């Protein structure tokens, strides 16, 4: 009888394990049967498909084995290659190699994206007047998901802790003239069904839009914990109200950090679209923190509807890397405004042209886009040859061709940056000189 009883228990356990739920944003609460948001462990290594669009590649996360701009852990790479299964297609092999060895293009790419080719003169005319460009105000809004699922572990620690650390580092180094705002959503109640209404209505600007004060901002940030549900649409709608209060000379940059899709019945895609249509200068950046495919789809739709950008981040270091690149991009925009007020037209044109050439062509540290492409291509080809020596590649010629085609596409996109910016630089140079000439002729006629 004891044996029979043990067999029944064993079969029951096996059935329970076999019927385990797939990761979703809501699961049944074992205590009362009510649904609540699940805290998921997503530390298992998953090899995502390698991006194929050049702009998506330039925004990719650096390879998991990269240890700097071009350095990587060679011993660990050898181990990973040995562990790779045989019989993979060349496309699947490339997915693995990119995951391990992808170049970090973000900083250079985003600086080129923000490149300001205008050439405003700051030359004193005979009547003592100086034409100066008007400086714009920059507002930075950070929307932080405080749903219960942000308590999950990812490489590096707990998602909420990593997100808060990255946001602190990001806002701390914003330009001194920029204003900051921090919204928390889903941070009250709990992720149980009985508290859903409270949680879904908890959208709060914990740091009101104002000049950045590190102490007050950290106090506001520290009080946020992974608590409830995900009222993503409502959080964006609250931000829209704030953006509508700004004028046309204000640039509003919105960062949405979320690890899950809307769970409060709102329409975040429509909300993002309405935010982008406020009439103010508004840029929306959506960061999917270790999201599943369903969530990624919704966040991508939000970015598309708002003409914004979407970025996958898989770990705390990815989020920190992205936000640091954003810091440099915002700083560069402000630097360019200041450059306009201190340089003459030709000096500004020459300086911009030289800087653009370095960002595109430089083949040694600090690398330009073409230099980074060259280094990544070299790493991928070497890894492919190593796999071939291990007998894990069926057609090395085809694999090398795929890698070369990837590099060619990136080189063409980099060169397109150069052509486009060079054309704009020359156009703006001519326009600025024409403005000076017209001003001079105006005074002569008087």
UniProtKB/TrEMBL annotation:
InterPro entries noted in UniProt: VWF_A (IPR002035), vWFA_dom_sf (IPR036465)
Domain VWFA span(s) in chain numbering: 139-330
A GO MF label: oxidoreductase activity
Keyword field: Oxidoreductase
Keyword Cell cycle: no
Location of the region described as Disordered in the Swiss-Prot/TrEMBL record: 23-43
EC numbers: 1.4.99.-
Residue ranges with Basic and acidic residues bias: 34-43
Protein name, entry field: D-amino-acid dehydrogenase/Ca-activated chloride channel family protein
UniProt organism field: Desmospora profundinema
């Amino acid at each position: 009888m004891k044996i029979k009883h043990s067999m029944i228990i064993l079969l029951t356990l096996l059935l329970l394990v076999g019927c385990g739920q797939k990761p979703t944003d809501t699961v049944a609460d074992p205590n009362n049967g009510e649904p609540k948001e699940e805290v998921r462990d997503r530390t298992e290594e998953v090899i995502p498909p390698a991006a194929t669009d050049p702009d998506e590649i330039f925004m990719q996360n650096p390879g998991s084995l990269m240890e700097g701009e071009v350095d990587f852990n060679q011993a660990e790479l050898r181990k990973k290659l040995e562990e790779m299964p045989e019989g993979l297609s060349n496309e699947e092999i490339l997915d693995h190699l990119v995951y391990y060895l992808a170049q970090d293009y973000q900083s250079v790419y985003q600086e080129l994206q923000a490149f300001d080719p205008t050439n405003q003169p700051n030359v004193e005319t005979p009547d003592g007047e100086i034409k100066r460009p008007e400086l714009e105000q920059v507002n930075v809004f950070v929307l932080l998901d405080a749903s219960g699922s942000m308590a999950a572990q990812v490489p590096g620690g707990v998602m909420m802790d990593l997100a808060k650390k990255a946001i602190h580092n990001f806002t701390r180094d914003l330009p001194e003239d920029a204003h900051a705002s921090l919204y928390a959503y889903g941070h009250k109640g709990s992720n149980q069904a009985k508290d859903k209404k409270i949680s879904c209505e908890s959208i709060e600007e914990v740091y009101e839009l104002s000049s950045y004060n590190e102490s007050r901002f950290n106090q506001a940030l520290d009080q946020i914990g992974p608590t409830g549900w995900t009222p993503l649409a409502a959080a964006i709608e609250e931000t829209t109200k704030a953006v509508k209060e700004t004028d046309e000379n204000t640039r509003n940059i919105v960062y949405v950090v979320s690890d899950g899709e809307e769970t409060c019945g709102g329409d975040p895609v429509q909300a993002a679209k309405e935010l982008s249509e406020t009439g103010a200068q508004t840029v929306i950046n959506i960061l999917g923190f270790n999201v599943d495919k369903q969530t990624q789809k919704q966040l991508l739709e939000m970015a598309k509807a708002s003409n914004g950008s979407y970025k996958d981040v898989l770990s705390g270091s990815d989020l920190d890397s992205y936000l640091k690149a954003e810091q440099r991009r915002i700083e560069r925009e402000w630097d360019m405004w200041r450059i306009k007020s201190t340089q003459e037209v030709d000096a500004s044109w020459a300086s911009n042209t030289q800087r653009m050439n370095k960002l595109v062509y430089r083949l040694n540290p600090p690398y330009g886009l073409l230099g980074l492409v060259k280094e990544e291509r070299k790493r991928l080809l070497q890894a492919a040859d190593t796999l071939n020596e291990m007998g894990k590649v069926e057609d090395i010629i085809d694999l090398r061709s795929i890698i070369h085609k990837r590099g060619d596409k990136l080189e063409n996109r980099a060169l397109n940056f150069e052509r486009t910016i060079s054309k704009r630089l020359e156009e703006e140079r001519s326009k600025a000189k024409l403005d000076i000439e017209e001003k001079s002729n105006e005074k002569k006629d008087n």
